[in-house]
Amino acid sequence: MKVTVLGAGSIGCYVAGCLLANQTRRCKLTLIGRQRIKHAIEQHGLRVTDWQGRNQLVTATNISISTQPDAMSEADVILLCVKSQDTETAADLIKQWAKPSSIVVSLQNGVSNVGLLRQLLSNHIVPGMVPFNVFYKGEGHFHCGTEGNIAVEDPSGLCNPLIQIFEEASLPVAVYDNLLPVQYGKLIMNLNNAVNALSGIPLKQQLSARDYRLVTAKVLAEALSVLNAEGIKPARTGKVIPKLMPTIMKLPNAVFQLVAASTLKIDPEARSSMFEDLALGRKTEIDFLNGEIVRLGRKNNISTPVNDHIVLLIKQCESHKKGSPCFPAEHLLPA
Q1: Stretch 100-120: mean pLDDT, rounded?
Q2: Residue 300 phi/psi, 5° resolution?
Q3: CA–CA dist 111, 310 (Å, integer)
């Protein structure tokens, strides 16, 4: 099986590194990404670590990485890991360079990417979801700081050979007949990404601070309200039940630490990918996360002032290109 990772960023490189470190003859893997990442991997190799002790290094000589889209021309499977705002561009490249028979597995944030891909491509599109957080530590080192299993929608079993390769690489995969409720569950979880990026502190430290959790509680309460108006019931991802999250976030610190102990198994260094985007001066996925809640709120005539304000702050940071503003929690709420 020839597998290409299109979008060799944090998630793409981590997944690729795990597969390459445990690669069998049944899988030939190629990465396509930015020159910055290509240069780092060619200099240092690809190291993947996680909060449970995984520590694997793939040497540069055993890695095929390119900046050019023609590297996917022979791919049987394309793992699409680009940012949501780059989905249309990626679809154009797939249409131009990939085989029509290639299976495209979307391992992206947000809930709208699969629909767009199906509009633009004749390939078989497999919805996917990555629950864990990956942070790039530099020099080809990608660290997974939170738990969770990859999920895919594959009722026909088309991806069974790929799933077996994933599981051999200690990347368990949960298979669903309908992934949309799971994707909305992940969307709920991802709404804290912007709070973390704006705080400028590690994820575990931010979640341990009640003032930031109170902001997140308001963000989540607005989201659950608009999703309810849409008739959408987000599924739990891992140990977290979406409808209980606002209440849990508002608990005093001592009680929160007890109630949420099993969900706080987070590496002390873990940060959201949005924090990394701000640090690198890149456009974030805010329009596909908190912006999705704002859009649904307007559609249903439901006010979402906190999500509106969070979106505004992130867009200001994007334009300033100075990284995280390290705002105190009270700055994240509208006046």
Answers
A1: 97
A2: -105, 10
A3: 19
